[in-house]
């Protein structure tokens, strides 16, 4: 496994200690990345910190689409963990949008709405938390696949770096969105000596010589990835 010390233009560093060096410097720019895992594995905490670091360290402009209870609740919760978007939001470097308002609307208008906001904000990064909630608007697997294809193509054409969280159910299997994305990162809760822990593995990452081993994920204000 090679690592990269020098920042590369085609990569957007996540800024998460221990993560960039296991994926050749960061997320491939312009690609569609999935962060998958079961309930409470830290998808939101990790995805939001990556977005925060992208703004703070790489000057990205982010659209963060959330299905959490309310955007205020979402922001308060994250601020407690040191991911405070208040100033960034005032400065127009992040736009946090509540996807709840799209519930019940047609699929086409959902896509159009999201892409319109990305365009208007001139966003270089889009986070969808979660894609699973968005896909609930699709009635059939066929419709989901079509939706994913459309979103994938539109986002790639716009050269936006996209990070979407995906909630997995008990069987842990990912749907067609896994094939229709450039990378899949997987979070999993497990029990080690009566202790609840979370591990992280990169399942695929196109064009990247990435680590193929499990790493330990530490949540909280000092979020990090480390070797077991
Ligand atoms: N301050 C904290 N310090 C350490 N761990 C925390 C802290 N706050 C939350 N956690 C851990 O993070 C987990 C929730 O993380 P998060 O909300 O990112 O999960 P998620 O995968 O997005 O969940 P969901 O499937 O509900 O969307 C909690 O279950 C808890 O274990
Ligand atoms: Mg979440």
What does this structure look like?
This protein is α/β, with parallel strands linked by helices. It has a single domain, classed as 3-Layer(aba) Sandwich (Rossmann fold), CATH 3.40.50.300. The protein is built from six helices and eleven strands. The chain has helices spanning 43-58, 71-80, 86-90, 107-120, 131-135, 141-158; strands at 11-12, 27-28, 32-37, 62-66, 94-98, 125-129, 161-167, 183-192, 195-205, 215-218, 224-227. A hairpin with a 2-residue loop joins strand 8 and strand 9. The longest helix is centred in the middle third of the chain and has 18 residues, at 141-158. It is globular. The mean pLDDT is 90. Adenosine-5'-triphosphate is lined by residues 37, 39-45, 81, 167, 219-220.
